Every structure is written in structure tokens, then in C-alpha cells.
Amino acid sequence: NNMLYPREDKENRILLYACRRCQHQQAADNPCIYVNKITHEIDELTQIVTDVISDPTLPRTTNHACPKCKMNDAVFFQAQSARGEDRMTLYYVCRNQRCVSCDQRGMQLIMFA
């Protein structure tokens, strides 16, 4: 086994790489031993096109008012995260052509759940 493991020299305050089987050790070139990179996946619902409001195959409702324009005309659909960890959510999209500002998800449609 030729693996060297990180070890701290507390007296000199330096990072070393040392062998667990023998006494071999060497100074580390870089003091960073671990990097945790977090990447955020783009929510697939941000890819909704504006044609969804005129899609004749989507059901429509007049029972839910848009939080922005208060119009009672929306299409709705169910969606789940691509990860499959989230429960199914019912999304409503306002059908008002003038109601196109960005909501908290960054969409160009007013969508509410």
C-alpha cells in the first residue's frame, strides 16, 4: 500500500502526509486536504415555455387566483423533482398574457402551488 495520509505537525503547525505502516512522512505542497464543492442543479420547472398557457391538453381552472394579478384563470399540472425525493406538487400557471414578471423560481411565468 503506497497511500499517504494527512497528519498535522502540531509543533511546527504544518500539514504532513505520512505512511501508516512505516515512519515515512513528507510536507504537503498544499495545505488544503479536502474540498467540498456544492453544485446546484437547475430546477427542471424553470424550462417551462410560455406556450404552456395556451396548451389545449392541460386542464384549466377558475378556482385559484394568481398571487400577482388576481386573475382567476390558470392551467395546472403535476410535477415531481428529477431526483424523485420530493412529493408530487400541483402547479398552477396564470394564463394572463400580461402577467409575465419573474417569480421566486426565476420563471418568466407566474406559477403558484
From TrEMBL:
It comes from the Eukaryota. The keyword Transcription applies. It is found in: Nucleus, Nucleolus. Keywords: DNA-directed RNA polymerase, Metal-binding, Nucleus, Transcription, Zinc, Zinc-finger. GO terms for cellular component: nucleolus; RNA polymerase II, core complex. GO terms for molecular function: DNA-directed RNA polymerase activity; nucleic acid binding; zinc ion binding. GO terms for biological process: maintenance of transcriptional fidelity during transcription elongation by RNA polymerase II; transcription initiation at RNA polymerase II promoter; transcription-coupled nucleotide-excision repair. This is TFIIS-type domain-containing protein. Residues 62-107 form the TFIIS-type domain. Belongs to the archaeal rpoM/eukaryotic RPA12/RPB9/RPC11 RNA polymerase family. Pfam families: Zn_ribbon_RPB9 (PF02150), Zn_ribbon_TFIIS (PF01096). The lineage of its organism: Eukaryota, Metazoa, Spiralia, Gnathifera, Rotifera.
